[in-house]
UniProtKB/TrEMBL annotation, chains A, B:
PROSITE patterns linked to this entry: CYTOCHROME_B561
Subcellular location: Cytoplasmic vesicle, Secretory vesicle, Chromaffin granule membrane
Keyword RNA-binding in annotation: no
Source organism (scientific name): Chanos chanos (Milkfish)
One function term, GO molecular function aspect: transmembrane ascorbate ferrireductase activity
Pfam families registered for this protein in UniProt: Cytochrom_B561
Keyword Electron transport assigned: yes
Protein name listed in UniProt: Transmembrane ascorbate-dependent reductase CYB561
Domain Cytochrome b561: 20-222
Its membrane topology: Multi-pass membrane protein
């Protein structure tokens, strides 16, 4: 998108946006933990509804907070070597993936025990779509950018798609969380939700904080001035490739 | 974001993405119409639940389809005068605003008749936030870009925020629709939704089509190559301003 004057987009503001994203992200994880721990009876792994409670916590921690932070590393560690930042990006996404798998197993396992049908709701459709695309994106990212399995041409084709779908999947993940919040409230407190029960207000606030986290991460990632400057290690290939094919200077994620 | 080779982002592909967005957008409006018209008893303006049915149709038509098309005009009408495209952008957003207001009045009026509390759900919080920010954004856009009420500096500060929040609000609007779909299904067919009732599957498909519409519009708007080239009428001011302040070539929305 556009360049933006320093009051909103200058480099000094980056640290404030990143700090804000971390405050919101941690608040989301803590509120989800309190909601499931305090209002919904706590956690277990025994097929009971307390096993279900592991699901929201894992998804908010894995597919929102860690996923968002994995995206932000390219803006936060601007001067570290590109390879180190790539490895950190891949590790954070791997943690996100593992924690998401635990969260998904938790809910399928609970459904099996409680004889509740799977995959009928819009929440489950959006969630499964997000998870499958995220897993594919992680595999492709690993093969294309960390290991030398793809040509420079293929990398240059895939990089902008990786960046776009990376952000799109975070947004879809947050949207899926909001659907999950609504489902859970209508299943659990349908009688008191409309009377502004504390649990309902807390969960609604969680929804708005998730939206806020997504907006800040998206803003930081799409601002031109926050983009990582090309490092010497990556210039030799990308400069030559871009100059040969398009005659324009290289871009970095 | 990044430049992208021609197979996914070349100018010829723009028409296919725009065509795809229109197919998905119209499908969303038609499916919402069929859902409310066929499965939920049709439309009325008498305080009954049939008045509620006006709400989803207006919001999908106004705050998703027309809103998305208002964003796309800068990419579709690349060679028309900037002022004409701005006016079309403002008119489409005004239609979007008016239809949204009808949709919001429909649901508040129905709630008043049926003695249902307002503004307790996450859907209503997200929806009201989206609508208020959209209204503010429309007023600011009108004052800053259509009428000469703002200095060149103020315009250049606000333009990237207008573009970012324009897209962010479309995403939030689609997220709010998904929440509305989930709420409506759990209120109306909670007994058969988990048995894959046709109405539930149709509404879930509507949710995925809304997500698809949002992804295509966001992709078209964020691709560098699809960006409108600077027109002669806007160059004199913007080139000089950008050169003076940043030493970089001008950007266009």
């Amino acid at each position: 998108m556009e360049n933006i004057p320093s009051c909103w987009g200058g480099m000094r503001s980056l640290q404030w946006f990143v700090a804000g994203s971390q405050v919101l992200g941690i608040a989301c994880v803590v509120i989800t933990g309190v909601w499931m721990g305090h209002y919904r009876g706590g956690y277990a792994w025994d097929g009971s509804v307390n096993q279900f409670n592991v699901h929201p916590l894992c998804m908010v921690l894995g597919l929102v907070f860690l996923y968002g932070d994995a995206i932000l590393v390219y803006r936060v560690f601007r001067n570290e070597s590109k390879r180190s930042v790539k490895i950190l990006h891949a590790i954070l996404h791997m943690m996100s993936l593992i924690i998401s798998i635990v969260g998904i197993v938790a809910v399928f396992d609970f459904h099996a025990s409680a004889k509740i049908p799977d995959m009928y709701s819009l929440h489950s459709w959006c969630g499964m779509l997000t998870f499958v695309l995220f897993f594919l994106q992680w595999l492709l990212g690993l093969g294309f950018f960390l290991f030398p399995w793809a040509s420079a041409w293929l990398r240059s084709v895939y990089l902008p798609l990786h960046v776009f779908f990376g952000l799109a999947l975070m947004v879809l993940s947050i949207g899926t969380c909001l659907l999950g919040i609504t489902e859970k409230l209508l299943f659990s407190i349908s009688q008191t939700y409309s009377k502004f029960a504390a649990e309902g207000v807390l969960a609604n606030v969680l929804g708005l904080l998730l939206v806020g986290f997504g907006i800040i991460v998206a803003y930081v990632v799409t601002r031109e001035e926050f983009r990582r400057p090309p490092s010497p290690e990556e210039e030799p290939i990308s400069v030559h490739f871009k100059t040969l094919t398009e005659g324009t200077p290289p871009v970095t994620p």
